[in-house]
Each structure stands twice: as C-alpha cells, then as structure tokens.
C-alpha cells in the first residue's frame, strides 16, 4: 500500500476491488471499466484512476469485525502497490441486530460494502454509489455520509471508522431480499436438470392419460390452486431435506440460523416456481398442438374450450412436480447447495482456513 498523500491533485491512484466469488465478483467486473469515469465526475481534481478487480473469499463471520481490511487487500494484490481498497461481500453484516451496509476506514484507506443490506432492486447502481461515496471519503474529498441507499451512520467501536446501518423493518426486509438476490434463484432452475427430467417424464405420462383429463376438468379453481401450492411446497421441502440445506443453531458460529433458513426457503421456492412456470407454458403449447378438441371432448363428455386446455396443463404440471422430487436425489449436490447461504458460507470458511494454513 502506498503512503497516503494529502494532495491527490494530478496523481495516479490505484483502486482495487476485492470481491467474494459469485455475484459480488460479477458486479465488480462489470463496474470496473466504467468506475474511473464515475470517480472523475464525482471527485475530479485531475486524479487519474486505475481500477483493478480481484476475486477471493473474504470474511468468515457476519459479525462486524472489519479489522485488518488493509491486510486482506494487500494479500490479494501481488505487487502490493495500491492506494485504495474496497471489499465487496455477499455475506450479511450486522451490528446490534442492525444490517450493516458499509464500513469505511480512512486511516487505512479501505472500505467494506455488504451487498445484501443494499437490497435487491437496482443493486448495481447502489453498489456503484456506495463505492464512489466511500472513495470520496477515503480521498478526503467528502466528509459527508455516504449516499442514502447505503444507510445512515452508526457508532463504531473504532473512532477512526465510519459504519453505516439500515435500521428497522425496512433494513431487515432489504437484507432478506438482498440475500435472496445474492443467491440468484433463477440459476437454481438450470441446476435442477435431473429434477426437470423427472418432472417432464411424469408430465408426459400424465398428460396422455384419459383419467387425468377427466379429473383435471372436474376440479374447480380452489382445488387446482391448492394442488399447485402443495406440490410446489412438497418439491421445495424435498430439495431442502434431501440436500441437508436446513441450518441448526450453532452450525454456523456467529450466523443467524433462522435468517439463513428463511433465505434458503425463499431461494429454493423461487427456483421451483421457475421450474413450475416453464413446465406449465410447455404443456399449454403441447396441449393445443397435440390434443384435438373432438378427442378431448369425447373423453370429458362435454364441448371443450381454451379454459379446459389451461386446466389440464395446470393440473398435470402440479402432479408432475412430485415426480421431480425423485430426480433431485440424483442432482449434483454442490450445484444445489450453492443456492443455500449457509452452505456457501461454510465452504468459504473452509477455503479461508485452508488459505491460512498454507500461508503458515
């Protein structure tokens, strides 16, 4: 790390973004090319910026202890030549139960930004605002609090640090949605390849069964809705149980197991919902192409319309989700576990421990 210089006018400054693997790393790589221009507009004074990114697992605990940030940055910068270090993590950070979105250390010219506390909407924009605001403070260009999306200042144990929290119900809601966003549940859908095979195989059998046609058209909206809810909940629960994604108190020291479990439930549930929606759309298209109205009407004993095709597809989709549960038992466990916060957190703890052992 270079020695701080009070006059940054006309200087070349190197900013290093050190990001956790996954979403933080993606955002850092996406942000880096455009960040110098944003910094020039907000900071100015003729500073020429060089922005580099590094991907590495960062902190092993969610409790706020951001000491040694400069050491973490220096560990991952090979030549040790950097001016400002900003760490991006998808691990939730809390102080006295309040979500911590950022912590700035002007003395060591480092900052830590926790993505989940920034919420799920306009995340890249909020990260950019947080990074630019932190850099303004670290270059002594601005002593005002960071931009509003980051939160409000809160007392820190170290007088030379500035900590930002998002308190109250709003802060906890943003933290929850931000953690689900960091899990990227839409990617879970692509990981459930064998579950998809089980679902589509069950759908193929049920779809061509005359009894299924009769039952589907005989059910009302409340019954179809209940069947859909129960089937998706059953597949969600099976994935969580089969892959041991449910965290117990004490499994992750310093972590809040109920919060992690709620995030896991929402993430897996959304992944299953995407699978349900994809199958339903597929079956609707197939039903109109394959099932002729005359044959359909003869089986169900009444003239059929578009609503009957939708009802049939809806019912078959619901019962097929149960078949998907058998396929998930053959899934790549690592791909499914990556959608659970606790599992990803635990893997990073192991990586950090192994890295420290190798450094000794």
From TrEMBL:
Top-level division of the source organism's lineage: Bacteria
Positions of the UniProt region annotated as Disordered: 142-161
Alphabetical keyword list: Membrane, Transmembrane, Transmembrane helix
Residues spanning the membrane: 188-208, 220-241, 262-291, 311-330
Protein name: Uncharacterized protein
Top-level taxonomy: Bacteria, Bacillati, Actinomycetota, Actinomycetes, Kitasatosporales
């Amino acid at each position: 790390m270079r020695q701080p210089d009070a006059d940054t006018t006309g200087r070349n400054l190197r900013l290093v973004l050190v990001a956790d693997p996954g979403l933080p790393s993606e955002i850092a790589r996406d942000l880096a090319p455009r960040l110098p221009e944003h910094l020039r507009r907000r900071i100015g004074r003729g500073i020429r910026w060089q922005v580099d990114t590094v991907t590495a697992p960062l902190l092993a605990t969610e409790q706020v202890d951001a000491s040694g940030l400069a050491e973490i940055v220096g560990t991952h910068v090979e030549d040790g030549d950097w001016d400002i270090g900003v760490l991006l993590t998808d691990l939730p950070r809390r102080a006295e139960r309040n979500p911590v979105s950022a912590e700035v250390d002007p003395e060591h010219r480092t900052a830590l930004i926790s993505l989940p506390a920034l919420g799920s909407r306009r995340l890249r924009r909020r990260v950019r605002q947080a990074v630019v605001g932190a850099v303004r403070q670290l270059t002594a260009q601005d002593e005002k609090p960071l931009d509003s999306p980051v939160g409000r200042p809160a007392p820190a144990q170290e007088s030379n640090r500035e900590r930002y929290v998002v308190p109250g119900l709003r802060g906890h809601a943003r933290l929850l949605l931000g953690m689900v966003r960091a899990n990227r549940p839409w990617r879970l859908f692509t990981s459930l390849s064998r579950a998809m095979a089980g679902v589509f195989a069950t759908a193929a059998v049920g779809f061509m069964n005359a009894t299924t046609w009769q039952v589907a058209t005989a059910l009302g909206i409340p019954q179809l809705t209940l069947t859909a809810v129960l089937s998706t909940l059953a597949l969600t629960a099976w994935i969580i149980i089969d892959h041991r994604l449910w965290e117990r108190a004490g499994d992750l020291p310093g972590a809040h197991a109920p919060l992690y479990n709620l995030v896991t439930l929402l993430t897996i549930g959304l992944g299953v919902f995407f699978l349900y929606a994809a199958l339903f759309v597929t079956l609707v298209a197939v039903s109109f192409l394959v099932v002729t109205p005359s044959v359909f009407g003869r089986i169900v004993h009444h003239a059929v319309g578009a609503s009957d095709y939708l009802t049939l597809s809806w019912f078959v989709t619901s019962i097929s989700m149960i078949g998907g549960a058998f396929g998930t038992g053959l899934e790549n466990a690592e791909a499914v576990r990556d959608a659970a916060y606790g599992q990803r957190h635990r893997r990073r703890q192991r990586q950090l421990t192994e890295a420290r052992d190798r450094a000794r």
